[in-house]
Amino acid sequence: MSNIIFDSAISLDGYFAGINRSPLNPMGGVSEKIHSWMFQQKAFWDYLGVENNKNDGPDGALIRETIDRTGAYIMGKRMFEEGELAWPEDLYKADVFVLTHEKRKPWKQHGSTTFYFINDGVESALEKAKQSAEGKDIRIQGGANTIQQFLNAGLVDEFFIHIAPVFLGKGIRLFEGIDHSLYTLKILEVIPSELTTHIRYELLKR
What we know:
- The structure is a single chain.
- The chain has one domain: 3-Layer(aba) Sandwich (Dihydrofolate Reductase, subunit A).
- It contains 7 helices and 11 strands.
- The chain has helices spanning about 30-35, 35-40, 40-50, 60-70, 75-85, 120-135, 145-150; strands at about 5-10, 15, 70-75, 95-100, 105-110, 115-120, 135-140, 160-165, 170-175, 185-190, 195-205.
- Strands 5-6-4-3-7-1-8-11-10 form a 9-stranded mixed beta sheet, with helices on both faces.
- A hairpin with a 5-residue loop joins strand 5 and strand 6.
- The longest helix has 12 residues, at about 60-70.
- The chain starts with a strand and ends with a strand.
């Protein structure tokens, strides 16, 4: 049975992305600051199909585990637009359901990634993702607003947060406007590393 999950890096002061986001400035230019732990892992570059001389630590094992358990992705239009021109072919290796008002035919890439453009809301995207995932988990990829929509709809089962030891001071907060009455949070796992702290939470609906 599929779980609905997300897996996101944030700064120590809670920011998921910076300001002035655009396809030419993905995530507002903060990716290097909050994702530096990921870029040091062999698992990340292997996933991209890039030759590398990195080694995996506990961070790499976590990357591999999250990839392996994910059967489909959901993302917002803004995240898709920021990545469309920059992402390598077949990045996701699964179906990706993009929440958008734009009418567009599916974009099938070489390999196993197909982007589907969903015009009728989160519930519709989730139902289609469940069918595609075939029992694996569904990952809400982002951005922050899309994750917030799923949280406020009571649809998230579990999430990983990777807290980078940096202050951004401004930007887009991941948990802005969350309905705190919906869930009780339970810490399932804490994994320390040199560049971040990984915390896995289970969300128990009240």
